[in-house]
Structures are given as C-alpha cells and as structure tokens.
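Researcher: Good morning. I'm working through a list of sequences from a screen, and I'd like to move beyond sequence-only analysis. For each chain I'm collecting a predicted structure so we can compare shapes side by side. This is the next one on the list. No need for commentary yet; just the structure.
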Amino acid sequence: MGLAAGGLLAGPCAARAQQPALPVIGFLSARAPAPNGDLVTAFRRGLTEVGYVEGRNVAIEYRWADGRLDRLPALAADLVRRRVTVIAAISGTPAAHAARGATTTIPIVFANGGDPIATGLVTSLSRPTGNITGVTFLTTALAAKRLGLMHELLPTAAVGFLVRPNNPAGESELRGAEAAARDLGLQLHVLTATSERGIDAAFTTLRQQRVGALLVGSDPFFGDSPRHLVDLAARYAVPTMYFAREFVEAGGLMSYGSSPTDTYRQAGVYTGRILKGAKPVDLPILQPTTFELVINLKTAKGLGLTIPQWLLARADQVIDP
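Model: Good morning. Structure tokens for this chain:
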C-alpha cells in the first residue's frame, strides 16, 4: 500500500522534472523600460505570430542600459554567461555591437535605426554573415528628408541638429544631415547632449545663437525623453522635427519616419523563427517600405505657424485636438 502510494506521488514529480527547460531570449536594450512598454508589447506580439508566448513556451531575460551605453558590453556578457538561446539586441546600433562583441555563436537579432552596413554590423543586407541578422527602421538615413521638410516649412530659419556623441549610427545620421544642409545652402548648428541637463543646455544654446528650428537625432536616449524634449521645445518656442510619432502625440510639432512598433514586431518574428531553427544567414535584413509624416496642428498654432495646405496634404496623420 505504501509503495503504491509512493509510486503514485512520484509519477507527477518525475514528469515535471523531465519537462524540457524553456528556451530563453536575452532582451538587450540601450533604453529604459518605463517609456518602452509599447515596444516590448510589439516584440512579444511578433513572437506570438510564430507560436511563442512569454511564460508559456519561452522565457525572456531583460537587460536595460537605461541610456548608459557603457553598460551594454557587461549586460551582453551577462546574457552570454546565462546561455540564452538567442539575443534580441534592441533599440540601437550600440546594443547590437555589444551583443556581437560578447558572442560569435549565440544568434543575434537586432532592431535599430542605423544603416547596418555603414555601421559595420553586416556586409550584406540580403545574406548577412556570422551570427547576426535583424530589422532596421532607417531613422538615420531619413535625416536629410526631415531637414528638407523643416526647410520647406521655415525656409529662412537657421536649423539646429541635436545628437548624442560617440554613437556610430548618430554620426552617420549627422553626416547625412550635413550633406543635405550643404545642398540646401544651410548652415547646420550641431548640438550634443548625453543627459537631460545636456538637453537643457542645448536649448539655451539655440536661443543664444538665434537658431529658429531644430531636428532631434534618432538616438534611443532621446526616445526615452519625449516629454522633456517636447516641453523644452514649447518653452523656447522652437519648431522641432522628430524621428518618431510618439513625440508628436506628446505635443511635438512634426515627425517623419517608419513605425518603431512594427520594427519591434518584426524583430520578434525573426527571434521566434530562430527559436524554431532558422539561422541568421538565411534571414535577410528587413527594411521598412512605408514612412509616415505626422503633424500636430495645435502645436503649430501655439508656435504661431500656419502649416501650408500642400504639407498637410502630404501628412499621413494630422493631430488637431
């Protein structure tokens, strides 16, 4: 009787012990978790599309650098020590470089705005080599387009460009903006910031130099501070062009770019495909095919600007609360 009861009790325990461990995704981000919940949700949605649900048949280890790029190599190394199945290096070229520097064997899926070839992540978009592939939303390549739109709106205004230094993708973006400025006959006033205090100082410089318009570089650090940037632009009455619609929804004037949420979703899909056995070399780098111009009319009115009808007609969304 005792043996039979013991056997019955041991059966379920033994079955649980023999269940295979869940595959683990290492989620590495240069950004902070609080402002990026919608992007994490989009990543999970992509995983779900290929059959993976966090907590059910896959686990995710999150590592956030909170805007401190110097933390990324250690965070990537920690994920490698934990023997994750795949690393999703999200939200910027530095995260992807940190992951690639930490491992040559664990597959890596990146999602960032820089040119993956120009920043040295891959040598081919159609057939990436090594252990890395991913998705780009081409924010850096669109700097010239953003500058052109701002110049069309304010043809006589001096234009500033806010960048974070020591970011390869940001440097590529700045070069594109400077080339476009030369073509337009404009002098581009370059401002740098690595902290909120630095952003405050940049706006003070804008006022001192009588710069009449601003472009915000597509660094993840700026993406984590949309409200701070939007509030400063309103306080200093500086018409500002951003790289993502979230800024305009928060009260910014204009944005032009692809959809970050769709990019994160696609990164989730690629991560799930690798969990199913696909190799990075067989997954070409994905690029966006659609871009959106978003304009906030209330903000324009507050700045004393009249948005021309031809520009409104080109907008994908006009926010007019």
